Amino acid sequence: MAKTEVVVLGGGCSWCTEAIFSMFDGVVKTAPGYSGGTTKNPTYEEVCAGDTGHAEVLRIEYNPEITPLGKILDIFFKMHDPTSLNKQGNDKGAQYRSAIFYTTERQKEEIGKFIKMLQKNTAKPIVTEVKKLKAFYPAEDYHKDYFKKNPANPYCMFVIRPKVNKIKKEFGV
User: What is the pLDDT of residues 122-164, one digit of tens each?
Assistant: First the structure.
């Protein structure tokens, strides 16, 4: 098997992020969870309460030969609003912040260059947090493949599906 890499992304609700990234070849495995805070092994309820410091995130294991980090970043920055502080759509709070948790120094450099280039064409400041991954805590089992398992859920129909359709159109998926 080809060498894979890991990056952890917070772009609002992890259900949306997983629904989008699971569509792409080269994304080997996804896992919704929590990262960026101080509480060990947080629950969804604790993260939603806003006291853990964690963001809802998606751990992405990918094959960079098929889907390079640059493409992952392009998808990520087109699927959410990186200029919105602690909010994506109606989801409000630091747990919905825009965040990238890198796992290698090469990723850190590439992310920095990508954001700098993107900022040149963006009127508002990009507020995406960029930090080295310290810990990732998997979400409860019912969060995995939530969109796929619950297509008739109103949140899936009216929030996730339009984002998925936008990215499908943008990237020809």
Answer: 999 999 999 999 999 999 999 999 999 999 999 999 999 999 9
Beta strand residue intervals within the chain, DSSP E: 5-11, 27-35, 55-62, 87-88, 91-92, 98-102, 129-132, 136-138
Q: Which of 13, 16, 48, 156 is catalytic?
A: 13
pLDDT digits (tens, 9 = 90+) for 95-130: 999 999 999 999 999 999 999 999 999 999 999 999
5-171 CATH choice from 3.30.200.20, 3.60.60.10, 3.30.1060.10, 3.40.47.10: 3.30.1060.10
Cα gap 36→20, rounded to integer Å: 21
Q: Is residue 13 annotated as part of the catalytic site, yes or no?
A: yes
| Residue 6 in tokens | 């890991």
CA distance 142 to 164: 20
